[in-house]
């Protein structure tokens, strides 16, 4: 895209700042966002977009959810940050809310998904007998960009040029229990998996897969770690994605939507496993800070008060009703996958041009793995918004000339 064309789409001053001063490690569209409300965002030219991928899935309650805004505004004037040298009431209360809605464990707080996974990986090694350090992870998975998390991410494109990786990660095909069994040895400490692969293309595990992993873990004395950074916190219509499958992990990681758009991450572990993380072994300076804690609490309370778990299930059904028929209709639409408000439409061809095509029509979407349209809409979306956005998306897909 030429600079002249880009300049018509956003403030040339902002474009120049990025060109000169910001490291270009992201593929950025020439659009500068200035304001958001619910499922809508506005750019610096005053144009409005319906956002089906708000905040990369972080803005679970849409843009600027009032309860989160209020909680942060209140807290920021009271106490912005204090370190974990001291206690903070809100962090304790937040941990309780998460524990009660999951498997009754304890929480360690951090600031992002990759950090939550680093904590889980360290904990797995700390908890296991000394000779056990290997962690089995899955092809197509995504666990973050710091070294251990990216080493756990079994996708070669994220490893190019940055090797050597952290040793000890063993990759298996997602969904293949026999392969997992074959990879367990006397050095294995844990199995780490996304219950639903997000970045990998909204891949829902085959029936019995997570149950099978639980069984393998139990038979071999391994920890089962669920990375729910993308699928957790109500996204799938349950508090946590694993609750759709009736299998409990020993350790779970959360981030993205955890604080309704404010940065925050957490690792939960059963009390027995958590005991292996003793004072001095791990830390995060900003972890569980008062702002994140208040935002996290407000997110949970909003989900409950507004009955948003049920809404995720219901709205997910509307996406299915409107998008699934494309599979039969268009030869280049291969599959529709959805659980709650995690939605993937897989094409047989490169789908990346659809991001721009939808943007031109006032709709923000994402494409992952090159050929999967990924939608992580807000749980607070109205049915009318879902229908409007799907109509736009369907029209864009139909007029797409692969
Ligand atoms: C996004 C993501 C991460 C990494 O989270 P960051 O906050 O970007 O570090 C880890 N795991 C999964 C499943 C994710 O979707």
UniProtKB/TrEMBL annotation:
Catalytic reaction annotation: N(2)-acetyl-L-ornithine + 2-oxoglutarate = N-acetyl-L-glutamate 5-semialdehyde + L-glutamate
Pathway linked to the protein: Amino-acid biosynthesis; L-arginine biosynthesis; N(2)-acetyl-L-ornithine from L-glutamate: step 4/4
Subcellular location: Cytoplasm
Positions of N(2)-acetyl-L-ornithine binding: 145
Enzyme class, spelled out: transferase
Cofactor binding, per record: Binds 1 pyridoxal phosphate per subunit.
GO biological process: L-arginine biosynthetic process
EC number: 2.6.1.11
Keyword Zinc found: no
Gene Ontology MF terms: identical protein binding; N2-acetyl-L-ornithine:2-oxoglutarate 5-aminotransferase activity; pyridoxal phosphate binding
Residue stretches spanning the membrane: none
Note: May also have succinyldiaminopimelate aminotransferase activity, thus carrying out the corresponding step in lysine biosynthesis.
NCBIfam families xref list: argD, PRK01278.1
Protein name stated in the entry: Acetylornithine aminotransferase
